[in-house]
Amino acid sequence: MDLELLHFFQYKQGYRYNSDSLLLADFILKEGIKSEVLDVGSGCGIIGILLKKNISSLDLNLLDIQEENIKLIKKNLEYNSLEAKVFCEDFKNFNPLKKFDFIVSNPPFYRQGAQLGNDSHKNISKFREFLPLEIFIEKSYRLLKPRGILYFCYESMALSEICALLEKNNIKIIKICFVYKDIKSKSRLVLIKARKGVKSSCEIVAPFLMYENNHLSDKMNEICLRFGIKSYDI
């Protein structure tokens, strides 16, 4: 049987989705997700659309601060024959009438010490000053239902800050996975599953290697094949 492809339009110039979003979507699907979902900083909609395509029953809500991204999200939803609610709003000021069972996000996490470029679309999507970690976690707590789950990825070197802010906001990490380029590299990314208002222990799963012997690892190849994505520049 032929693999059904998902089609994604993205801007030739500007921020483009990368493997981080694919890794997070795979992590979420393996852990489980259902009911009312909010995807924060959706970009072209890659994470939310991957989740919706695999779990059609999701009540999906996609939020992004940039109008350019909202156009992409709507185009990608329509092209893939999927439905979701779409919001063009700053997450810091987002005050919906409902709360969510799950919040998912690949938030901007480049530090302020990194050099801002001339492309505002890339800057807003990449640099944490446009959505500081403390605000992201505080707002997620307020918008999650009791015992709601927050899935997100972030740079590994920020883990101590992440743990402190989650604890401050009564959100507990219950599963964590460190991502490595290869066996010789330091972890660059961490995938996190955290739950509001619980005291569960934290499970650290096996590390994820993107490359083995200078080739994509079997696990990374499996993810690429599973999602079957075809991208188009506009």
UniProtKB/TrEMBL annotation:
Give GO terms: molecular function aspect only. N-methyltransferase activity; nucleic acid binding; S-adenosylmethionine-dependent methyltransferase activity
The protein's UniProt keywords, in alphabetical order, are: Methyltransferase, S-adenosyl-L-methionine, Transferase
* Pfam families reported in the protein's UniProt record: MTS
InterPro entries from the UniProt entry: DNA_methylase_N6_adenine_CS (IPR002052), SAM-dependent_MTases_sf (IPR029063), Small_mtfrase_dom (IPR007848), tRNA_Adenine-N(6)_MTase (IPR050210)
Alphabetical list of Gene3D superfamilies matching this protein = Vaccinia Virus protein VP39 (3.40.50.150)
Start and end residues of each Methyltransferase small domain: 22-117
Protein's recorded name: Methyltransferase domain-containing protein
What is the organism of origin for this protein? Campylobacter novaezeelandiae
